[in-house]
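Design request, C-alpha cells follow.
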C-alpha cells in the first residue's frame, strides 16, 4: 500500500471507526492487531517496506546505544510488552515499554482514558495498570528485538512513598537483562505522591541508589551497565528543573526524558473536568520549553529524549533543535496513524537539507547556538 493512501485510509476510515469505540477498548484492539503483526516475520517485512526508513544521516548514538532513527514509541502505549516486535516494522527507531510495576495491579477505576479531538489531546488516569515485572520479563524474553527497547519502571500504588525505592529496585531486578536502557518514572500524576520524588533531595537519594543497584547487577552478571534515564513532569518550575539537572549529573544518570503528561488545562477548546494527565498537542510548547531549559542548564551534557505533542516532522525537529537527541510519540500516533514515524523521518531529512546539517546529531541544540 502506498504511504499516501495509508495516511488517507487512516484519517478517513480507520480513525473514525476507532473513535466510535471506548478509548481504552480501541487501544486494546490496536495492541492485539500489532501483536499479530509481531508474530509474523513475513508480514513485518512487508509492512516495513512501506513504513520503515533507514538513512545514515538519521542514525543517532546516545548513552552508548545506536538508534537507526530518532523516533521512538513513548511509554504507556505498550505497557506490558505485548507487541514489541511490530514497532520496528512501523518505522520506529526504538520502543519504550511500561510503566512496569513490580507487582501486578489493575490501575484506577474505569473510565480512565478520554479523547479530546478538538484539541488533538488525550487525558489518562490509568494509574500504572501493569501485568507486573515478572510477567513483562517473561514476554520480553520471547520477543524479537530488532530495535532498542527501553524499560520504564514505577512503584505500586499501595507502596508508601517512603518505600518507593524498594519497588524500583525490585522491578529493575526482574527486567535488568531485558532492557537496552532503563527509565525511572517519577512523574506520572496518577499515582498519589509519586511526583514528590522529583524534589532534589528525594530524587538524588533515589537515583543514587538505583544507579548503584544497576552497577551491582552488571558486576554480578558480568555484563555492561544499562543506561539509566529519569522521566520528569512538564509542570516543574525553573528551580525544580535545576534540581533535576543537579541530581542527574551528581548521580551519574545517563539522561532525562522530558516530559510526561501535564495536569494543566489552560487553553483547551474542550470543556472538561476529568482528572489525569493531559497529552497531545496542548503539551507541545511546554515540553519544548522544558527541553530547551534542561539543555541550557546542563550545557548540552545530559542527553534528552523529547516527548509531548509531536504530530509532524517540524514538531519533532523543534524539540531536536531545543536539545533533544531522540523524540517519542504516543498521542500523535492516535490522531495521525501508523505512517507518522515514516513521515517524521522523511521530513527530518528535508529539514536537515534546508538548514545545512549533514547529520541529525548536528541539529541537536542548534536553537541555542
Amino acid at each position: 500500500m502506498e504511504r499516501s493512501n495509508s495516511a488517507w485510509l487512516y484519517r478517513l476510515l480507520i480513525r473514525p471507526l476507532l473513535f466510535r469505540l471506548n478509548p481504552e477498548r480501541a487501544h486494546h484492539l490496536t495492541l492485539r492487531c500489532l501483536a499479530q503483526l509481531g508474530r509474523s516475520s513475513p508480514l513485518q517485512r512487508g509492512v516495513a517496506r512501506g513504513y520503515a526508513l533507514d538513512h545514515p544521516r538519521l542514525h543517532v548514538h546516545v548513552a552508548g546505544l545506536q538508534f537507526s532513527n530518532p523516533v521512538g514509541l513513548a511509554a504507556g502505549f505498550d505497557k506490558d510488552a505485548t507487541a514489541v516486535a511490530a514497532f520496528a516494522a512501523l518505522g520506529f527507531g526504538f520502543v519504550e515499554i511500561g510503566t512496569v510495576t513490580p507487582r501486578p495491579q489493575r490501575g484506577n477505576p474505569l473510565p480512565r482514558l478520554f479523547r479530546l479531538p478538538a484539541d488533538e489531546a488525550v487525558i489518562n488516569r490509568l494509574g500504572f495498570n501493569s501485568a507486573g515485572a515478572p510477567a513483562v520479563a517473561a514476554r520480553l524474553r520471547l520477543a524479537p528485538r530488532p530495535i532498542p527497547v527501553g524499560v520504564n519502571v514505577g512503584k505500586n500504588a499501595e507502596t508508601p512513598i517512603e518505600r518507593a525505592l524498594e519497588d524500583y529496585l525490585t522491578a529493575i531486578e526482574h527486567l535488568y537483562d531485558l532492557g537496552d536502557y532503563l527509565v525511572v518514572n517519577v512523574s506520572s500524576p496518577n499515582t498519589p505522591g509519586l511526583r514528590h520524588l522529583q524534589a532534589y533531595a528525594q530524587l538524588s537519594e533515589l537515583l543514587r541508589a538505583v544507579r548503584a543497584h544497576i552497577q551491582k547487577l552488571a558486576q554480578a552478571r558480568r555484563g555492561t551497565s544499562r543506561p539509566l534515564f529519569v522521566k520528569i513532569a512538564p509542570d516543574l518550575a525553573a528551580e525544580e528543573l535545576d534540581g533535576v539537572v543537579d541530581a542527574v549529573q551528581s548521580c551519574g544518570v545517563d539522561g532525562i526524558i522530558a516530559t510526561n503528561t501535564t495536569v494543566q488545562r489552560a487553553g483547551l477548546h474542550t470543556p472538561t473536568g476529568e482528572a489525569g494527565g493531559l497529552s497531545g498537542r496542548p503539551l507541545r510548547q511546554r515540553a519544548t520549553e522544558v527541553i530547551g531549559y534542561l539543555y541550557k542548564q546542563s550545557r548540552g551534557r545530559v542527553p534528552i529524549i523529547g516527548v509531548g505533542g509531536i504530530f509532524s516532522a517540524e514538531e519533532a525537529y523543534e524539540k531536536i533543535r531545543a536539545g533533544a537527541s531522540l523524540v517519542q510519540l504516543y498521542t500523535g500516533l492516535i490522531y495521525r496513524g501508523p505512517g507518522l514515524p515514516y513521515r517524521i523521518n522523511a521530513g527530518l531529512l528535508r529539514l536537515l537539507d534546508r538548514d545545512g546539517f549533514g547529520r541529525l546529531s548536528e541539529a541537536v541544540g542548534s536553537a541555542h547556538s
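Comment from the thread starter after seeing the answer: thanks! The longest strand covers residues 94-100.
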